[in-house]
Amino acid sequence: MEKIAFIFSCLAAFFAPFILTANAPPDNGTAHFEFPHEFEGRELRNIGLSEREGFFLRGFPGQIGRFTDGQREIIIRRVTEATRMLHPAVDCFEAVGYRTSPLPLRVGDDGKRWSCFTASKAGDNLTVCERIEDNLSNEWTDVSSWYWSSWGKGTGEWWAYTVAERE
To answer: How far apart are CA 87 and CA 76, in angstroms?
Structure first.
């Protein structure tokens, strides 16, 4: 579990633009936001971000939360504007030494599509899946397609999910 926590710490640093901190402007649409209490029918427990992660996240629009459902670690990001600072999870895992391999696109029981990959390092084997969606039922399985379809449209509300599970 320590390795997953380390990876998610790295992910949080890469996803810096999505945390609301005390230094962020009060009118960025995040002042009264609350993360969901469940994900895919499972109760979420907030496992929090470290002080170090908070340092990297100051002043950026949106929010990020790190949770567990008892079996998986889940990062949920609420994004309020199109930004190039939202990185694919595979970049984060590779940056800290994981060997990654793409998996076929997955479609959940609810019909939602996920891009996935395996991440392996020193006997630690994970399956990581991610997706981005908005409140209008649009979905993206890669950050680049989300960015280009969202860019120039002003503010909005998008949800980026990254889920890591031990194999």
So the answer is: 13
What SS3 class is residue 56? helix
**8 A C-beta contact, residue 73 and residue 66:** yes
* Helical H segments across the chain, by residue range: 2-14, 51-57, 89-95, 143-150
User: Three-state secondary structure along 103-115?
Assistant: EEEEECCCCCEEE
Whether the predicted pLDDT of 50 surpasses 80: no
Provide, for the chain, the percentages of residues in helix, strand and coil under a 3-state DSSP scheme, each rounded to the nearest 5: 25, 40, 40
Give the pLDDT confidence of 9-43 residue by residue, as tens digits.
Answer: 555 545 444 443 333 333 344 455 789 999 999 99
Q: Cα torsion for 10, 118, 78, 86, to the nearest 10°?
A: 60
What pairs with residue 66 in β-bridges? 75
pTM of the prediction?
A: 0.78
Q: Is 16 helix (H, G, I), strand (E, B) or coil?
A: helix
Say if residue 146's pLDDT is above 80: yes
| CA atoms of 145 and 85, how far apart (whole Å) | 14
